[in-house]
Amino acid sequence: MSAVLAPDRLAEFLHGLPKAELHMHIEGSLEPELMFAMAQRNGIALPYADVESLRAAYDFHNLQSFLDIYYAGASVLQTEQDFFDMAWAYLLRAQADHVVHVEMFFDPQTHTERGVAFDTVIDGLKRACDRAAGELGVRAELILCFLRHLSEDEAFATLEQAKPHLGKFIGVGLDSSEVGHPPEKFARVFAEARRLGLHVVAHAGEEGPPAYIWSALDVLKVERIDHGVQSLQDAALVERLVKERMPLTVCPLSNIKLCVFEKMDQHNLRRMLDLGIVATVNSDDPAYFGGYMNQNFRETGAALGLDAGHLRQLSANSFEASFAAAADKQRYVDRLGEHCAAFGL
Ligand code: ADE
Ligand code: ZN
Predict the structure, then answer these.
(1) Cα separations in angstroms, 254 against 227, 281, 300
(2) Catalytic positions
């Protein structure tokens, strides 16, 4: 069956396409309006006069220039209700974009460093995730990320704080400033996380070299690479990613906002698909980068000329790459098949 749809049908197909989001930092979903509301209710002063001047500051030239603003914005989060409200607002957006499964990153160290209890963070987020399954039809899981600019000892201390909550999150990840903080810095804490039965993922090859992707695979033994867009510089690495069906959670709007690629038509997502890499589309920090899941799909699709076949592949990849139980994966794949059939695909 041909994957060619007229432009308005293609837009409709994309809108309703069931999908999994596997790379989204919940702190990066905090919209300026909610940030100001929380600042007011918690008596916190933000260094911006209003929502417009905050948004105007979202003009980044690399990862670090974003992270500085992102960590400052997170300072408004104080109570369990704040964490719930932030996650709930994101989950409503996910539902609107036909995201049926989410694996959501959170950065506990950003909050515990400021004196917010680990329990406050995870309990607020988990309450929203649990409610989303029943009320929104969105299955949501949590992945705890260690901040790689901090030490391995601090990561171990965070894992200790997390141990009483092991049933509430499904894995660990590694994020924050990449260059100068290679995956091997966290070898022992990832070994301990694996021993605890947790899934493991890591940001690698966002700004950093292919060598960081190799060590995320070989040293941390990750099950997915977050970003990984630098992998295409290394033919042997590409061969391995394809052979092992190692997923990449790609975030196109993020890559443009953080100047990893100058323009969307230079993005390598389509090349990844053509090479047979299990690439997925994700929003990373949607409140900062100009859009949620469907906006990422729309802008990437338009710039790279993706057709319904590519979009179907991206959706199938997202389910394959997810940590959903086998029965849930089958349900998602069946739903994708029904959606395609409704468009004659
Ligand atoms: N934390 C939030 N977004 C991030 C990104 N794109 N890279 C690394 N750390 C992050
Ligand atoms: Zn990220």
Answers:
(1) 10, 11, 11
(2) 206
